[in-house]
Amino acid sequence: TVVAGPAGSVDALIAAAREQNIFARRVNMEVASHTALMDPILGELRTALAGLSPRAPRIPVFSTVENADAARRFDADYWVANVRNPVRFSQAVAAAGAEHGTFIEISPHPVLTRAVSETLEFFDLGSSQSLGTLQRDTHDTVAFHTNLNATCTVSPPTGEHPPEPHPDIPTTPWRHSRHWIAQTPAQRANGFEVRRRQPTPVPGTSPVP
Predict the structure, then answer these.
(1) Do residues 131 and 106 lie in contact, with contact meaning Cβ atoms separated by under 8 Å?
(2) Most buried among 57, 87, 93, 204, by the most CB within 10 A?
(3) CB neighbour list of residue 4: distance below 8 Å, 6 or more residues apart
(4) Would the pTM of this model clear 0.70, i.e. be above it?
(5) Tell me, what's the pLDDT at 158?
(6) Is residue 164 one of the residues assigned to a domain?
């Protein structure tokens, strides 16, 4: 659950929740969107977006503004409602989770992944997963590729696979031949005479043939 409003009221609610051992924290936001505090700017926002002519989306869109079955125009009125009205978060997540299994939050640090996971669990939507992209105080490349790898380990990609028998692919041809270094007579090296090693005679011994 996300609550927005005057800073003092939000802080008081967080304190009350923590007294009951309920997890609560403040999100670093500068404005209280989706509340009556947005009313003074709605007229100006509607005017600024009046000439908006959006095209129909090519991929499915699960709206957090309107009912799941509502026709969406994505015009000025839609975006004004998006700023002012409560977020239909669970509705959108449940609708998307019924058709898809992986949720990816694109942000500098995960904020909604836990809420997405809890919503998916509440609606019993199988083995869905919620992942971030980056992580605060970590190496961006490492964090991104770690999450990218998780999308495949939890939900491996599937696709068409030809039935057996599989194509008979030829193995690598090997040429079994030896390439030993040929023995050559010793040569001079930088003015030094290179000779075959000779055993050092030791008194009272004889060489073994």
Answers:
(1) no
(2) 93
(3) 10, 29, 32, 33, 34, 35, 37
(4) no
(5) 66
(6) no
